[in-house]
Amino acid sequence: xxxxxxxxFCIYCRKLIPFNPKFPTCTTCGGACSMTVRFSSTEDAASxxxxxxxSAYISTSNPLCDTCRKMAN
Length: 73
Known about the structure:
Blueprint: E1 7-9, E2 16-18, H1 27-30, H2 35-40, E3 45-48, E4 55-59, H3 66-72
Antiparallel strand pairs: 1-2, 3-4
């Protein structure tokens, strides 16, 4: 599943959302990405890469899979 340019995926439910690694969740899963929750548990395991949407072991502090992270560098 490939998103349109500047689109990403919610790291929890895979819903298409704007690409923003600082806020990689949809409003349903992230509750508008509460800063308190986000920074108090930055290693909570998620299921999908924010960029490509593929299943991966990632977290809110690291929302890209290894492949997408390597391509970004």
